[in-house]
Structures are given as structure tokens and as C-alpha cells.
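A student in our group prepared the protein record below, which I am reviewing. What it holds is a sequence and that sequence's fold in C-alpha cell form. My question to you is simply how this chain folds and whether the C-alpha cells agree. Do not assume that whoever made the record got everything right. I have pasted the whole thing underneath without changing anything:
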Amino acid sequence: MVNVTDEMIQEELENLQRRNGERSETETITGKDDVLQVTFIQVDETGNEVENGVKKDTSLLVTDFTDTLQQQLIGSNQQNAPTLTLEAAFSEKHLGAICSELGMQESQKNQPLRMQINKITHITLAPLQEEFFEKAYPGKEIKTEAELREAIRETIAGHFAQQAKNQVFDQIYHTLVDHTLMEFPENFLKRWLQQGGEKPKTAEEAEKEYPTFANQLKWTLISNQVIQDNKIEVTPDDIRDFAKMQLFSYMGGQLDMMGENKQWVEDYANRMLQDKKFVEDSYHRISTDKMFQWLEGKVNATEEAITREAFAEKLHHHSH
């Protein structure tokens, strides 16, 4: 499990304060909580725009930049258009995300870019009082900052717990698929891939798609056998509860604010049970989840307390 640190809680608390804070447009960057609407433009060594180079609008917090660049930006205005490289402008923590946002590879992190500042929005952080607590966690009846921090801790822990579970499921999937020997009529299936769809494929396309298709077929056979052998069942109540939880997520987790007047939730679930496609899709998702939970119970897992960075590294370099 990931150790939820005070630093992580403080970081999320400030994010919540920003999202619920007051916004005002300004001419000058006044602090670390300002939001910048910028355009990154790829330039050459002389500062001229590169033809067909990167040109991308994005929104950034001043805190997204390195401490050095933050100090340079505070006090500047929309006429300021610094030339920079992503490696110099962003810490390792943010570098991958901004490269992805701009459609650049990390190998391009030293290419010069002009950052044109289009708009500056100052955010006054929401004060730590009950009105903010209610907006941050509706229906939780949080009264104090300490209670808010504990709620944030639980949210972060829950997020990492779900990621850890997904990682376990991914490892189970690859263990079963990679280490279960099955022989398929390869030539027949490749011909079927060529001719069996709405649009015919070439032999080269079928050859390229076959490994993925074979793994999917193998997984379907394995999972169906596990479900059948272990009598894993999905009941109408399971699907009804799934429909309610789906509605719950659509509503941002605020159904608990409705008091006793929740008959329309039951009506919604009953309507969804009449939708054949919803029932089929839900049945597949629920049965798969139940199967993974059953398989997880057969795994001898050792719980390990690690940092957020170590956990991210495990996700990035997981082995099959």
C-alpha cells in the first residue's frame, strides 16, 4: 500500500481550495496560485517560429513550473513571452504530462519553445470554513480542518488501493494468458480475420492483428472456464446495484444528499434492467470483476508499504 503523507494531503487540500476559490483576471502574475493560459510555440535558435513545429494552447498553474522559473514569472505580464525548454521549465514530476499535452516526446525536452502568455487568472484560495468543506465533500458533514484532512487521506488511500487492485488484476491476466498453452487453427483464423468482418482485410493486416486476436480468444476461453468451474454468478440484484452505482458516479457521489426521496433511483435501475444492451454489458463487467476477485483470493500476496514514487515506478515497469 502507498504511504499517504502529510505533503500529499496538503497538496490535495490546496487543489480543492483552488477549484473552489474566487477567480479574477489580472494583467500581471502575482503569485504561485495564478493560472496561465499559454501557447507553446516551437522556435529555432534565432527565436523564429519553426514551420510545422509545435504550436499548442494549454492551461498551467504557476506551481507547475520549477521554483527558478516561478520566481522569474511572478511580476511578469502578458507581454512577456519567455523562450525556454521543457526540461528547464518543469520538474521531473510534471515533465511527462506536459510533453504528452504538447504531443512531444521526452527526447524533445531540450527543444526551444516560446511560451506566449494569453491570459492570467488569479485564484484566491477558498477559506477553510464549513461552506468550503461542504463543497469539497458534499453530505459528509465535515466541520473542522482536521476532519477535512482525514477525508482527503481516505480519498487518496482509496485511489491508490484501486490502482493496486487493478495492477494485481493485470498481473493475473498476463500470468494466465502468457502461461496457458493453447493451440489454435492459425491459418483458418487468419483467413477468418481477412474475410469475417464488415470490411475485408489484407493478409498483411490479418497477420499483424492475429497475436492480439489470439490472446483475446485465449482469455475468453480461460475466463469462461473459470466462471463456469467456480459457479460465479451474476444476479438481477447485482445488475440493479450496478445501475445505481453508475448513476451515483454520474451525480458526482451526491445521491446521499437526497434524504429518503430516492424512489427515482429505484425507477432508474428498473428501467435500465429493461435495456438489453445495458444488461449484457453489465453482466460481462460484473462477472469479470467477480472472477478477478475470486482469482485474487487464490494469490499469495504480501502487503508492502511504499512511497507514491515507488508505486508509480512499479506501474510503469510492471512485469508479465
Summary: The mean pLDDT is 86. The chain is about 55% helix and 10% strand.
